[in-house]
Structures are given as C-alpha cells and as structure tokens.
Amino acid sequence: EDALGSMPYLAVHLRRNDFVLSHAATTPDVEAAAARINKILQKKNLEQVFVATDAEPGYRKKLRSLVKAALYFFAPDDGAIVPQMRGKEELIVFQVLANAKHFVGSEGSAFSAMVRRERQHLGHSKKTSDEVFCEALTEEGASRRCSARQ
User: Which of 61, 60, 59, 53 is nearest to 15 (CA)?
Assistant: First the structure.
C-alpha cells in the first residue's frame, strides 16, 4: 500500500492461467481488460489501479502499457516487499484489494468472492464491490458493467 500512497485507487483481481480455459467467456483478453479498467478509472475519477493477477509477464507488460493511469502489481519492481512466508503475500494482496475505493473481480473466482465479502464487512457498498469482468467483454463493450452472480 505504500506505493499507492493515500490516494484512492481501483483494485482489480484478474485471473488468467487456468481461467482462460475453464472460464473463457469471462476472462478478458488484455485489450478488453484494459479498456474496462480505463472506463472505470475515468468514471470514478481515479488515477491509480492495483492489479492482482496470475497472468504471464507479457500480459502484465501489455496491460500496464494500455491502462491510462499508474498501475501497480504486488511485485518488487512496484515497491512491494514480497514476504518469504508462504501465504502471507495472498493476505497482503487481499487487504489491498479489500480497501480500494472500487473493486472489480473475476467471475467464478473464490478469491474474488472473499474480497467482495470482506469489502461488505468493512462497510463498502455492494455497488463498489460486486463488479466483475463481463462475459464476452470486448474493447467496444467496455462501458458495460456486470455484477457477480451470487
């Protein structure tokens, strides 16, 4: 959170790896994901985004180049001190996601569902917590907002 400072931020949990096959319809390509992130940043008047993802380095690099705001991953290059203890990194990422001004998760992800529940527990509204990437998201359809299926 030090890299994010005290400014409000958008938090995104963007599953890739196995989700590309098992949840293909709701796992956006990099251009569509960036377009949706840019729309939210603009609409919410935010200037930075934290992305938790298991994407390959090439996807991350392309996402960073397409998003029109400061973009941070939990990585040493972005100022993160990666803990040696197994599982601690996930807890830190969880807290960063839960404390954002707005959260976008991955449909079908248990981790995204946990973040949504924690955000509601912390008092964040459902409207700022239940968004997921839409099915068959495209750059052209990036204005559309979708909510998690409960």
Answer: 53
Residue-wise pLDDT for 115-146, tens only, equals 999 999 999 999 999 999 999 999 999 999 99
Residues 6+ apart with CB under 8 A from 94: 111, 114, 115, 118
Task: Cite the beta strand spans of the chain per DSSP E.
Answer: 10-14, 48-53, 70-72, 102-105, 131-132, 146-147
Are 119 and 103 in contact by the 8 Å Cβ rule? The answer is yes
72-116 residue pLDDT tens: 998 877 777 778 887 888 999 999 999 999 999 999 999 999 999
Distance CA 68, CA 81 (A): 25
